[in-house]
Specification:
single chain, seven-stranded mixed sheet, 23% strand
Amino acid sequence: MHSTRKVTEDLIYVGGSDRRLSRFENLFPIPRGVSYNSYVLLDEKTVVMDTADDSISRQYLENVTYALGGRALDYLVVQHMEPDHCAMIDVLLRRYPDAKLVCSAKALSMLNQFYGLDAKERALVVAEGDKLSTGRHTLHFIMAPMVHWPEVMVTYDEVSRILFSADAFGTFGALAGNIFDDEISFDNIWMNDARRYYTNIVGKYGAQVQMLLKKASALDIEMICPLHGPIWRSNLGLMLEKYQKWSTYEPEDKAVMIAYASMYGNTENAANVLACMLAERGVKNIAMYDVSETDVSELVAESFRCSHLVLAAPTYNGGLYPRMESFLADVKALSLQKRTVALLENGTWAPVAAKHMRTVVDSMKDITVLDGAIAIKSAPTDNQLTAFEALADEIAAQIGA
C-alpha cells in the first residue's frame, strides 16, 4: 500500500526511508536510518523529481503509481546520479515508455556508466538557465557542479517557489510520516545528523556550495525539498545560516574539542587533566572523544563545529597512532580551515607523534597551531602541571571563558 503525503496541492512526496541500512555509502553509521526523497508534480504534464535507492524499490513504485493516479509519466528529472537517487530510473523508463528524461549532459553519460542505459533518444539535456513548462508550473534548472558530484543540478519551481535542492540541505535520519521541518523537533539529534551529513559528504566543496548559495539568494524561495531528510518550509533561515558557516569553514561555536588516542590510559589521563583545568577556567561544554571508539564521521562533524581542537596521541611504530592519523587525513581531505590546534604527545623512548600531527595540520589552510606542544614520557607527572596550566590559560582566554 502507498505511503505518500501532499507537499502542496499538486506536489506529492513519494519517497521512503531505510531503517535497516547500518552505514551510508558503507562508511557513515546511520543508527537513525535515512530517507530517500522523491516527488511527483501533477500538472498538465506529470513530473517525477529524482527516484530512490533500490532498498525501498517496492514502496517507491507503489507510491509513484498511486500519486500518478493512472496518468502516464511525462518527465523524469534527474538532478543527481548517485545510486541512492537513481537506482529506479531504468524501471520507470521501462514502465513509462513515453517519459522524457530531463538531466545534465554529465548525468546522461553517468546513466550509461552505471546501468548500461543509452537514453539519448529519450533525453532532454538541460543547461544553466534552461526552463521547462509543465502547464501551470515552470521549472528553472540551475547547475550545481561538485555539490557534491560534477553532474548535479537543482530545480526551482517559479510558481510554487520551491527549490528542489538535490543533496544540498539534506540530513541523515529516517522520516516517520512527518516530512516537514515544522513537524519535528529539530533539536540536537537532527542538527547533529545534518552537520555530520554535510561535513563528511559535502564539506570538501565549500567554494562550490558558496556558488550555489549565491545563485539561490537571487530566488524567491518559500520551501526547500532535499533528497534526504525533512522538507524545509518554516525554518529555512536556520539551514541557510548553517550552510553559510559550514561552507566558509567558520566555526559554529567557540568551543573546545579534545580528540585523544590512548593505548593504556596514560594519554587519556593527560587529556582529562587538561579538560579539568579548562573547566576550572570557565570553559563549558568541552567535547572529548576517544578516536579509537568514536566513528571518524562524528569527529569530523565536531571539528567543523568547534573553534579549538586539542589533539593528543602516542607515538606508534615510530609514527603516529593509526586512528589519529586516519582522523587527521579525513579533516585534511575535507578542507577543514580556520581552527586553532593544540598538540599533546606521548612516547616512552622516542616521541614523534606531535611532529607527525603538526606536519598534517601545517599542510592545511589557515590553521593556527599553539606553541609548546606538551610531551609526555609514558605518563604525565606533577612536574608538567605548569605546562598544562599554561595551555589551559591560553585556550580559555581565546575562548573567552
